[in-house]
Amino acid sequence: MQDRIFNFFRLRVPLDKCEFVYMLKRDETEVLLADRSGVSDFVAKVESFFASKGKISGYRETVPVVEVDGLRFVEFQHLRYVYEETEQRFVPGAVALGRTYNDMQQEASGLSDTEARHRINTVGSNSVDVEMPSLPVSMAHEFFTLFYIYQIMCYYVWYYFTYWNMGIVMTVVVLGAAVVNIYTQRQIQSSIVKMTRYRTDVTVFRAGEWRVLSSPDMAPGDLVKVSENWVVPCDMAIVKGTTVCDESMLTGESMPVQKFPIPERSSEVYDPEKGSKKHTLFAGTRVLSSGRNEEILAIVQTTGAHTTKGQLIQSILFPIPMRFKYNEHLKVLIGLLLVYAVIACILVINFLLSNGKLSNRYAAFCYAIFVLSCVISPLLPVVITVGQVNASQRLEKLGVFSLNVQRITLAGKVRIFCFDKTGTLTKQGLDFLGVQPVKDSLFTPIVNDVKDAPSSEELLYALTTCHSVGSLEDRLVGNEVEVRMFTATGWELVEKEGEQPLVRSKVDPGLELEFVKRYDFDHHRMSMSVVVRNRKSGKYYVFCKGSYERMQQLSTPGSVPTDYKSVADRLAKDGCYVLGLSYRELPSHWTHEQVVEFANNREAVDESLSLLGLILFRNELKDDTADAIAKLKAGDIRTVMITGDNAMCGCYIARQSGMVSSSARVILGEMVSTTEVKKLVWRDVDSEEEYDLPAVKNLVERGEDVELAVTGVAFDYLVSMGEIKGLLLHIRIYSRMTPDGKVECVRLHMETGAVTGMCGDGGNDCGALRFAHCGVALSDAEASVVSPFTSKSKTIQSVVDLCREGRCSVATSFVSVKFLIVYGLIGSVMWGF
Q: Could you tell me where the DSSP H helices lie in 144-163?
């Protein structure tokens, strides 16, 4: 309103000459619950009809035009928009950086002062400055709304008729609710201000020399030195050195994450959201001390509100408006009540002035308003939010945090809840059981103690090198599976500045294996690979580790036992986390340069491998998982497992947790290669009996005690063939799912019209957590960029608490609204007629 008043006294001029710009960002309204009744669509059409002609809903603000060094720009929602002469409009400020790793390496030479200043002017400084509003401003925002004005009008009428008792009580309630709202909002705003006001000194290579600058003066493309025990001020890509980072603030990942430099020679496109995460330091995360005193250099990629942390702040400051169907229904209800109230008011005024012989028209009007306030109670907004606020406070005491209390009400309508397995249903750590070696294409007995006593030296070398483990202050960090595997070998990891890491035997200190090339785990390949050199013998090896299905595909048929899959399936069905190992010894006549050239081609690295064996881990259920699943099932919430692990291990955990009853048959759908093509085969995981798709549909339609499970490849096949919708609500276990597959699975469940939740540890399920109606990240952070809810308790009991409090919030709102409506209708009849 203030902007509209000021703009009334301003002249409209072209953008190239203006001093102010009226900015609008369209609302991308999020529909939180499908409404099949059509009421929400009707409300939207009515609102559109009564809206101003051509008016678009969204955020509006009049911002001043600033001109610096010949550049005209405005800032709106902490983002800078630069005037583009050719397009004759303001466009988002952007700096063109290298898209591929090769381009980025070529740009790793720092910026000149002129170029840095131009880039800062284009995209803005590296800061998101949020001002804390004064108390009067907060009060004005709270009280100067249409419904508060309506409340004040109603209470004035009550006082006019000396209805002191009720008037005072209602006034105290509304003022108390307003005080609570103002206090809560200021607390949130205070935490946001603290989050944004971070400043630190940064060593930047600017104009050919190293300088110490303040973090707001950083520009995209700057080359910076990464310090240890340092909170990263912007998103940057590492070009030299390795480090370890704590990302729990953003992703919820509790384990420190190892970060590596970008490849020196690669035409692969840099994508920090997917495959390039391992090279990226995100703003707001903490670089930990590795103890290696290694020089770490990085190139700034994004600054300010463009960073991952900046996007989190943006989502808090300017949330996407949500259309919850019950709120839309309430609008219709209020409309009907308003029609009834207007009719009642007309009848009351007519009765008082004619039959009642009342000559004071002002008193008659006030009495009509009194009747109106009875029908449409001023307490309606209070009773709707009181349940949400109280539920939020109780959840915080239980360690569950949310930045949007409206989501709590939505949690009360959840009908399907999806769970990741490892670290969510099961404990974070895994116990190393041993290895089952393969020799001469035959399995040999399981070896539990692998310390320098495996069946072959290649198997020992694979266990000590085929991982991405790093060190942090003399302790190992990285993926929990790999840390346990490497620890079991009894070897030590040696990392020195300027040298490739190596592993060394404690029994034979002269036996050292040096890393030549390492390809980290790829979710699409389902494997990782390393090329290493034995310093003692001079031999070069390729070792590959991944899902046992993938290792069967990569290994030569002659090295794979005939009973390989049945043995691996049996181990997985017994609750083991099973991985496969393969290797290849490179030709002895190859020079080091030839090996390096070969190692740069991952397709070649993963060829002609020989199977070494299986690695076995035990992943036990968390103590309260079974109890939480039982409570969710008792609350008529369907529980589903979406895991990247093997289907057999998923079946074991599902049965142990009670997600699948002990009496139910589990039928697994997977793609099987034939002589011509791959086909979908369904088989009972216990009896091995096979079924075709029509038979499976017949089983579930007859309501037999059958649960379905599918692999990720089978899931993709069912989606492509259009068969997934008929089976979706009968599939209990989704295995070998990629991060994108998890998102697709959650999306399909949401399309059924059911409110869908997702719970995970924030690792490879970030996309699914963000996409679901109610995403719960098991994290140490109170606010996470990946999900609406975070749980510090790190157990799925928090899901039970959330659903319980959500239902409580819904019930409180419904009952309170019903009471006020019935009370108002009865009162209008008693007082008006």
A: 146-160
